Each structure stands twice: as structure tokens, then as C-alpha cells.
């Protein structure tokens, strides 16, 4: 169980904010959501209920009209005079033909005038190649129109069909001629404009639209201000399913009524803005709700800033100062809450850090500088003796040019190792020094030792590294391996860069170490104890690890030349090359 670092529970920031939020925001939100949902649901139900009643009434009236028209069609097919015209036309006199045709035209005209939905009535007579129209009288049979009528009659689904972009109802006699076609076909062409006007009476709201729809034919009629645009938008969805359209449509409320007798839908789309229109009655409450909510949010934000954000900023600024090394600025906080507890611990942490830096970190820095001085003192005498022997040999041979070159390199070498400047130098300078040492040794062992020293890649030149980390490893190779070899010795220094890691390889062709010896050598530099004797390799490994982290340091492997391969690994976090 966690203990609260304040004297009482009601002083905690969490409880204050929780109570404040619950008292101000929650009741307002609940009231607003309830009022809005209640109003919206009631308005939606009322509009949907009224729309469905109107749609059902319309589709029922349309069904009754279609039934009456179908009855008239079948009455016409039973007309005796029509049958005489169809079957005895050739044997009839002109007077009989005219009399019978006039009677049929009178009958068609009477039917047309009794129903506003009828635009024209056609009787197609393929036996005599004639068509009789209530509007155009007797004409030659239009074969294209007749075939379209026959095609529409092959489907036994909808009673209404689309023929030449017009709505029509068709019926045929039972008798079949030699062409396997009915002898008499009655086609009633519906007045699409008047049906659309009738359909438009269902659009009681602005921007609403109503459609007469068939699953086989698609949209038969459309009405409303946005009827054409909505037809283009919803036609692909309507061709899939009515339910799919209703699910995908988010801007309109869709209502529908279906007639099983006609196999037709009548569908209305009402903008949801209309559904929300009754909510305007609550505009006063809405504004009051908005203002109250704004005030509540303002109070809550101010409370958050005062009790949480501002104290957190103080803590963040304190840690930023700590990162910069400023450890003498404490945070003052008078309130008895969680931040007071944090600030008190933060101030104590600053004090402990200062004490630890004075007692531990500075001591380590002094130890490292002492180890560097010790390394420099270990290098100087041994190398100096050998240098004098080389000069003596060159002087005996009176090789003035090599003496001049050797003394210049020797001066640069000792100036570098005795310079008491920064402990870190660029890798370019460190490699230059190591290369100079290798050239000096090459003068001494020109015939016995061959050296391959690769060029340092440009992207590695400006990396800051501890001073004297490469030359002592090369010196170690000369002293313990190459000088003692009877055969020709090889030394190679190469470089490699991979993302944030850089590698420097120093390898020779001395004695091969077995796996156990390599493991002992790697453990020797990695497991460093403060009491352990500090040798050259441990000193180098420790300084690299302290500078670049534990991922960096020395590693030992067998060289491909059957000798020892020393890998200097430098891992840089991010793109920071100035350590």
C-alpha cells in the first residue's frame, strides 16, 4: 500500500481535480446530452411516421390505378370489333374498316380521358402491320417499338416496365400467329410528368426527394429539388440494396414503403437538417449550455494550470538546470501537496549529487589524469632509447636526409605525447600521431616488418577521442610480437564505420591465440576492479568506456594473418561527435 506524502487526503491534487470536475462538468454534460437526444429522437420518429403514412397511401393509390388500367386492357382485348380488325381485315369493306376503327378510337379516347395517368393507348396488330393510337389514330406498325414491348412482356416481374424511356403497362391476347407472336398487344403509355407531379406532392420539406424504384428497372420516377443529384448519388447504392443505401447515407433520413403487388418501392429522402429543425426551439437552452460549458472548461483549465501544469514546469526547469550542471538552485514550494513532497526530495537529491561529485567523480578524474601521466612516462624511456640507437646508426652511415626526416618526426612525436592540453583530441590527430610512430618504427625495422596503414575516412576525422589510445596498441604489437619474429612481420591498421559505430582494427601476424586465451584477454580488460593493476591496455579500455559508454572499448580476436587482432570500438549515441 502506497502512503500519501501529505498530511490529509483532501489536500491531494488528484482529489481536488476529481471533485471539481465532477461538480462542474458532469451534470452539465448529462443534462445537455439528455435534452438533445430526447428532442432529436422525438423529431425523427414524428417525421418518419408521417412520411411512411404518406408513402403507403401513395403506393396503395398507385396500385389501384394500375389495377384499373389492367382491367381496361383486358376489356379492350375482348372487344369483338378489335378482333374482327385483327383477323378479318383483308375481307372487310372500307366502310366496315372505317367504322370499326372509329369505334376502337372512341373507346381508347374515352379510357384516356378518364385517367390522368394515361398519356396514350396503343393497340399493336402485327397480323395487319398496323398500330392504333388514341392520340395518333392508325399508323404503320413500328417494328422497333413492337419488339421493345414484347421484350418487356417476357419478364413476369413488375407490372410496369420502361419502354423507350417511358413507363408503360402492356397486355397481349392469348392467340399466337405464325411468327410466334400474339395477334393483339395493348400498350398503355403512362404520363411520366403527371406521375412525377403526383410524386412531388410527397416532398413536404425543402431539399427532400422521393423516388419510385424497382429492383429490376432501377429508378422509375424521381421528384424533389435535389432529385436529380440524389438519383446520381444513390443509384449505385440502390442497385445493391435498399438496406445498404440506408446504412451508407448519413446526410438524409430515408423512409420507404413497399408494394408486393407492384413489386415497387416508394422511397423518400428527408435532409437530417429538417429533423434537427425542432431543436431550434431550444436555442436559448443551447446557448446557455454552451456558455456554461465554456465557463466550466475555463475554470477547469485554470485549475489544471495552477495545481498541476505550473508546478510541473517548475520541476522540469529544475531538471533542465541539473542537466546543465547547475546544482545549487533549489525549488521553493509552500503548499503541502504531492509537489511539495517531490520538490523536497528533489532538493535533497541536488545536495547528494553535489556531495557525490566532490567525493567520487573528481577523484576519478584525478585518477584518470594520473593514469594518463603514468602511461606517458611508460612510453617515453623505452621509445627514447630506441630512437637514439636509430640516430646513431643513421649518423654512422651519414644519411643526412633520413636523419633530417627522422628527427622531425621524433620532435612531432614527443611534442604530441608531452602536450598538457585537453585530454580529448580529434581522431584525425590521434591517427596522425599513430601513423608517425609507425613510420619511425618502419625506419628501424625496414627489412623485417611491413606496415599497411589505411587512410582514415573523412566522416570519422572530427570525432573527439581520449588522447593516446591507438599508438600504445601499435607499440604493444611491435614490442611483444613483431620485434621477436625471425620471419617477416606484418602490421595492418584499418577503419570501418557502421551507423553509430566506428571500428579501428590493429592486427599482426604473431602467434595465434586459442579461444581460451582470447577469452581470458577479453575478460581481463572488461572486468576492471579498482584494486586491479592498471596496465596500458586496461588504461586505454577504461578511458574509451568512460568517454563513450559501456558499448565501447577494446576487443580481441585472431587475425586473418594468424596473429592478434585488436578492435577499438567507438559507439556514439545519435549524431553527436563532440563528446
TrEMBL record:
<protein>
    <submittedName>
        <fullName>Sensor histidine kinase</fullName>
        <ecNumber>2.7.13.3</ecNumber>
    </submittedName>
</protein>
<keyword id="KW-0597">Phosphoprotein</keyword>
<dbReference type="InterPro" id="IPR010559">
    <property type="entry name" value="Sig_transdc_His_kin_internal"/>
</dbReference>
<keyword id="KW-1003">Cell membrane</keyword>
<dbReference type="GO" id="GO:0004673">
    <property type="term" value="F:protein histidine kinase activity"/>
</dbReference>
<keyword id="KW-0472">Membrane</keyword>
<keyword id="KW-0808">Transferase</keyword>
<keyword id="KW-1133">Transmembrane helix</keyword>
<keyword id="KW-0812">Transmembrane</keyword>
<keyword id="KW-0418">Kinase</keyword>
<dbReference type="Pfam" id="PF06580">
    <property type="entry name" value="His_kinase"/>
</dbReference>
<dbReference type="InterPro" id="IPR036890">
    <property type="entry name" value="HATPase_C_sf"/>
</dbReference>
<dbReference type="InterPro" id="IPR003660">
    <property type="entry name" value="HAMP_dom"/>
</dbReference>
<feature type="transmembrane region" description="Helical">
    <location>
        <begin position="285"/>
        <end position="305"/>
    </location>
</feature>
<feature type="domain" description="HAMP">
    <location>
        <begin position="306"/>
        <end position="358"/>
    </location>
</feature>
<feature type="transmembrane region" description="Helical">
    <location>
        <begin position="13"/>
        <end position="36"/>
    </location>
</feature>
<dbReference type="InterPro" id="IPR050640">
    <property type="entry name" value="Bact_2-comp_sensor_kinase"/>
</dbReference>
Amino acid at each position: 500500500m502506497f502512503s500519501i506524502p501529505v498530511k490529509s487526503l483532501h489536500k491531494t491534487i488528484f482529489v481536488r481535480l476529481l471533485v471539481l470536475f465532477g461538480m462542474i462538468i458532469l451534470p452539465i454534460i448529462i443534462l445537455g446530452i439528455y435534452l438533445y437526444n430526447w428532442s432529436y429522437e422525438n423529431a425523427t420518429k414524428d417525421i418518419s411516421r408521417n412520411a411512411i403514412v404518406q408513402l403507403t397511401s401513395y403506393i396503395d393509390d398507385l396500385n389501384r390505378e394500375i389495377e384499373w388500367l389492367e382491367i381496361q386492357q383486358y376489356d379492350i382485348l375482348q372487344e369483338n370489333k378489335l378482333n374482327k380488325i385483327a383477323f378479318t381485315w383483308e375481307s372487310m369493306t372500307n366502310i366496315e374498316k372505317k367504322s370499326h376503327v372509329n369505334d376502337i378510337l372512341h373507346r381508347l379516347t374515352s379510357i384516356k380521358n378518364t385517367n390522368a395517368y394515361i398519356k396514350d393507348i396503343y393497340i399493336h396488330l402485327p397480323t395487319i402491320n398496323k398500330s392504333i393510337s388514341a392520340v395518333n389514330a392508325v399508323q404503320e406498325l413500328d417494328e422497333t417499338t413492337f419488339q421493345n414491348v414484347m421484350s418487356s412482356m417476357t419478364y413476369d416481374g413488375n407490372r410496369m416496365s420502361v419502354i423507350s424511356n417511358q413507363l408503360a403497362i402492356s397486355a397481349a391476347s392469348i392467340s399466337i400467329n405464325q411468327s410466334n407472336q400474339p395477334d393483339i398487344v395493348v400498350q398503355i403509355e403512362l404520363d411520366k410528368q403527371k406521375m412525377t407531379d403526383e410524386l412531388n406532392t410527397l416532398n413536404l420539406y425543402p431539399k427532400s426527394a422521393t423516388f419510385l424504384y424497382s429492383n429490376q428497372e432501377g429508378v422509375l420516377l424521381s421528384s424533389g429539388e435535389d432529385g436529380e443529384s440524389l438519383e446520381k448519388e444513390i443509384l449505385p447504392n440502390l442497385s445493391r440494396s435498399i438496406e445498404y443505401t440506408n446504412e451508407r447515407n448519413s446526410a438524409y433520413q430515408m423512409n420507404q414503403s413497399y408494394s408486393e403487388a407492384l413489386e415497387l418501392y416508394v422511397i423518400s429522402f428527408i435532409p437530417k437538417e429538417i429533423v434537427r429543425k425542432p431543436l431550434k426551439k431550444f436555442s436559448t437552452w443551447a446557448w446557455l449550455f454552451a456558455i456554461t460549458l465554456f465557463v466550466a472548461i475555463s475554470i477547469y483549465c485554470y485549475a489544471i494550470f495552477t495545481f498541476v501544469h505550473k508546478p510541473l514546469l517548475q520541476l522540469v526547469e529544475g531538471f533542465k538546470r541539473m542537466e546543465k550542471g547547475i546544482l545549487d538552485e533549489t525549488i521553493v514550494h509552500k503548499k503541502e501537496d504531492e509537489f511539495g513532497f517531490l520538490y523536497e526530495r528533489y532538493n535533497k537529491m541536488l545536495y547528494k549529487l553535489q556531495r557525490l561529485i566532490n567525493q567520487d567523480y573528481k577523484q576519478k578524474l584525478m585518477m584518470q589524469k594520473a593514469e594518463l601521466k603514468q602511461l606517458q612516462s611508460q612510453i617515453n624511456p623505452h621509445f627514447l632509447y630506441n630512437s637514439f640507437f636509430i640516430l646513431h646508426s643513421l649518423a654512422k652511415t651519414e644519411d643526412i636526409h633520413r636523419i633530417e626526416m627522422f628527427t622531425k618526426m621524433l620532435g612531432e612525436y614527443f611534442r604530441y605525447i608531452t602536450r598538457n592540453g585537453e585530454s580529448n583530441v580529434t581522431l584525425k590527430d590521434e591517427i596522425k600521431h599513430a601513423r608517425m610512430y609507425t613510420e619511425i618504427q618502419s625506419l628501424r625495422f625496414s627489412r623485417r616488418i611491413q606496415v599497411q596503414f589505411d587512410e582514415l575516412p573523412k566522416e570519422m576525422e572530427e570525432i573527439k577521442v581520449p588522447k593516446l589510445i591507438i599508438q600504445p596498441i601499435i607499440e604493444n604489437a611491435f614490442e611483444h610480437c613483431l620485434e621477436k619474429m625471425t620471419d617477416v612481420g606484418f602490421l595492418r591498421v584499418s577503419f570501418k564505420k557502421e551507423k553509430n559505430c566506428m571500428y579501428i582494427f590493429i592486427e599482426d601476424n604473431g602467434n595465434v591465440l586459442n579461444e581460451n586465451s582470447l577469452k581470458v584477454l577479453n575478460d581481463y580488460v572488461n572486468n576492471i576492479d579498482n584494486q586491479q593493476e592498471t596496465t596500458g591496455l586496461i588504461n586505454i579500455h577504461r578511458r574509451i568506456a568512460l568517454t563513450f559508454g559501456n558499448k565501447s572499448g577494446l576487443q580481441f580476436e585472431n587475425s586473418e594473418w594468424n596473429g592478434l587482432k585488436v578492435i577499438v570500438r567507438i559507439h556514439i549515441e545519435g549524431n553527436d561527435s563532440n563528446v
